[in-house]
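If you are new to this repository, start here. Below is one unmodified record pulled from the training split, so you can see the exact layout before writing a loader.
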Amino acid sequence: MFSCSWLEEESKNSDGSGKLFVAVSVENSNSTRRGLRETTHSKLFLRILDNYGSVIKDTSITSSNGLIMCNFSKIPAQKECSIIAWTQDAAGDIIHLPDTQSVIVDAGSTSNVALFLAPRVGSIFANFMAVATYIDSFFMSFDSDSGYFSARVPRATNTFISLDKVPYGANGKLSLQVTRKDKSFLVDWDTVLTFQKSDVSLELSFVNSGAANFSITIDKPSNTVISGFGDTTIALDKESNIGVLITEFCVNGTGDKDFVEVANLSKTTVNFNELSIWVGSTSKAAITAKNVVIEPQKTFVFANTAAIDVWQNIDATGSLALVSTSAILRIYGDGVLLDYVIYFNENNSGWPKVASSGKCSWTLKENVADPKYNNIPSNWKVSTDTAFVDGTNIWYGSPGVL
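And here is the target side for that same chain:
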């Protein structure tokens, strides 16, 4: 809160004037969770006009506070006057749109006026965590009907990039490029966007440092997962944390021994009319199982039909072919997203590397029981449990066993 006061000589209002108390509430143009640098007001402007439009008071206050209160004296009484307030940043650009209120001040008394300032601009920002060392830089741009905004930043372990002072309502193409050190594109993505005030800010959160998939949030809790290699964009709801999540899966290089284990890590039995596994950005489930009951600390295993000669404890089979490099796995129970995992079987991705032949599974570490934590690469390990031996081929994994 910021307060100010102008106490001019009044001789007890012998001139028949009054006083005016003005409270200005300034809506933050940025998410309070982020200390964004540019889309921030630094100065409040207050102007009082008489009923002819002539300036009575004109002042500016250096403050970035959300509530500013001021007292004005010697305001002409019994005549309508207008109070106008707005904010600017250090560069002189308007951040909050002007708000105007009219009032008639009584002689010898104080009139109160409350103004509310809403931002006209916001920030589109991206925060990238645990960025791979082979990345050189990030470039983000918004080519809109309200102007062109762009920023480029070099790679850091945790990288932040923002497009600042973007007008709300601006419509155009938002683009993101991630460049390797050899200057080739790891990601070259764009989407059509109308930047809305209800968004506060558009958040892009780096899922992990492998093939550079991104979780993009516009209106929480919905988010969008986008592949760095141009796969179809798919919209995801927030994971329903009921304790049902992916705990083990095998990506076989030949595509015929794949499985995905789903576990109920809660303390209650769960029942689904339909439980389904989805692979990649397809619009159709790979396998759907009917009337599924999973007791606490028990599993349900989806597998490719040809995988049953290698793995035990398979509950449902079908056409389940996982990509050996990177993909997204989704589990739905009666149409509700229970869990998704984005994996990367690539060097420097943060995930433990599995041979291209794919004869072993990834298994979630025992201390992880929340869907939001099984997208962290360090929470996975390569299985060392021998499941099947075929001559010189040894398969490692333990589907159906926690």
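Two things worth knowing about this chain: The chain is about 0% helix and 50% strand. The chain has a mean pLDDT of 78.
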